């Protein structure tokens, strides 16, 4: 399936430069398609309406609108999708900003006092509708957002390119004396200046290289570091891992880097339209053993999966059976002691398109793809 449209979607204009802001016509067409996908899900279930309440689904449905205040908090809005239209409710102290800066014009607005609940539909909409909870349609809504539309792809490509460039520019300035928190602070500043939100900032210097989710500390980097950024803009999340080294690489380290890239290559080759996540995961499990990491390496860290409006949407496991679609984003992140590889990619009918690329970063050839190498400083 090409073009990022599900069966039954109306035609959508293709934007010009992927970095351009979409036109009003493109945004309106995007909204019509997404609304059509949700209504089709309601039809299949026989539901009258659904109340959208999570940040992942709301930002997807509203074209990237920022409906949060705290990154750790619940959204400050909810959307009731009915057969007659979309109704957004928010608090009285949030409605002015949302109206001025975030919301598409065709959404019908409702407000409640800041101290009252958003999810009591009868309280602000009335008793004339029976709304399903978002959780009841979680699989259908995940299916609806899998294949990215051209408007979304333009914004997502730009974000990933910018995050990759930020990683290059910040990491090229590091020294063995730089601390993990200094690295995270520099990345947070650049990501925020790019209009994105730094959802995850990880860094481990050589003294903490055993940790696969290393929250930054005051430790100096020492002989090298792994750095991870997950940045969100327009609701979509770019995920990137890079490595730097200050000393001479040992043969064993270089060998491990080469082998983890081969695991990723096997996973990329298995990630094609029509494949199922559990089938890809089985290939990944076999690949760890094939390339010398042992049969249980996959148990020691999550392996990634579909990306887009969530860091992983969902995390792939041996039992997740979602089908891969064309124009679906993925971030696989195979890892082993001292090595990890991670970029955000797009799956289409021609193969894997790596989105988080900065041509200034050093690469090595893995199969027919250029993959990021460790930056030697």
TrEMBL record:
Residue ranges of region Disordered?
1-30
Database matches in Gene3D superfamilies: Creatinase/methionine aminopeptidase superfamily
One Pfam family, short name: Peptidase_M24
Cited CDD domains:
APP_MetAP
Q: Which InterPro entries match?
A: Creatinase/aminopeptidase-like, Pept_M24, Peptidase_M24B
- What sequence ranges are listed for the domain Peptidase M24? 156-348
Protein name per Swiss-Prot or TrEMBL: M24 family metallopeptidase
Organism field: Arthrobacter flavus
